[in-house]
Amino acid sequence: MRAFIFPGQGAQVIGMGQALAAAYPAAKAVFQEVDDALGQSLSALIWDGDIETLTLTANAQPALMATSLAAMKALESEGVSVNDASFVAGHSLGEYSALAAAGALSIADTARLLRIRGDAMQDAVAPGKGAMAAILGLDIDAVTQVAHDAAQGEVCEVANENDPAQTVVSGDKSAIERAVDLAKAAGAKRAVLLPVSAPFHCSLMAPAATRMQAALAEVTITAPTVPLVANVIAESVTDPNEIKDLLVKQVTGRVRWRSSVDWMAAQGVTEMWEIGSGKALSGMIRRINRDVATKNIGTPDDVKSALDGAA
């Protein structure tokens, strides 16, 4: 069994998807559709802009989605359908890419939603007030205790459960700084503040969740042709209303990536294809379950090599 998985923020690089667009008309059409939906040439920024502007949350989110959908369209041009997968899943914003790939959302609506999501998440907390930190080498129970002890009346919560060795905490900057010190004292191999513009996936994002609830209410979501393994429950879902509810909860909720990979493996998934920019998810998967094979689909060469074993 196969799953298609879609990366989240942090995977962006200048030039991503450009070779796909040059090689596959269907991939180029994705970037044009996103440009039209946003009323700007996002593709020009992705291919010829500067990384600082691309990394802005409101740009990175639709840009990564566009690149993932372009890669998916390239696969489809070669005869590999999303319906060849048993599940789709994505890391944070990648969940939107997964839904678009599975036909639950139009590409245009997905681009507009991600622009709103990026703006809403950026606006939810004043600059400099929040922070996130990656903690390596402590298990989830230990990090949960660290977050609890560091809070001291402020927000410090587990945001991403990425793999057995990497957990991310999010919240008020002073609380996150305390968590870094406590994690090191508890034996973490590394505990480091992340270069992010806001404290994602914690309760400080509540204003953004409210904005996303309103935005999602205006958009049609249909049942995906392939079940989505949702971040916040780490199980599959197909009901459109439940999907909308989970997308709202995802803004403040934990990205349960390790649990999602474990759940898919327990259902019989033996290979996961990372669709889009980068290889971050594949690295996590190797640390979660070495029995699950991974492939990365981000260039025309990747598409061609994937076809060799796609039958």
In short:
With 311 residues, the protein is of the alpha/beta class. It has helices at 18-23, 25-38, 42-48, 51-55, 57-77, 94-101, 107-123, 140-151, 173-185, 206-217, 240-252, 257-266, 280-288, 300-308; strands at 2-6, 87-90, 130-136, 156-163, 166-172, 190-193, 228-229, 236-237, 271-275, 293-297. Strand 4 and strand 5 (166-172) form a beta hairpin.
Please outline the major beta sheet: 4 strands, parallel
Which structural category do the helix and sheet elements fall into? alpha/beta
Low-confidence stretches: none
Approximate helicity band? 40-55%
Please tally the β strands and state the result: 10
Gyration radius, rounded: 18 Å
Mean pLDDT across the residues is 94
Q: Could you state the order of secondary-structure elements as H and E? A: EHHHHHEHHEHEEHEHEEHHEHEH
- Shape type: globular
Output the strand order for the largest sheet.
2-1-9-10
Proportion of beta-strand residues: 15-25%
Question: Notable features of this structure?
Answer:
311 residues; alpha/beta; four-stranded antiparallel sheet; 14 helices; 10 strands; 16% strand
Describe this structure in words.
The strands form three sheets. Strands 2-1-9-10 form a four-stranded parallel sheet, with helices on both faces. Strands 4-5-3-6 form a four-stranded antiparallel sheet. It has a two-stranded antiparallel sheet with strand order 7-8. The radius of gyration is 18 Å and the shape is globular. The longest helix is centred in the first third of the chain and has 21 residues. The chain is of the alpha/beta class. α5 packs antiparallel against α7 and α8 crosses α9.
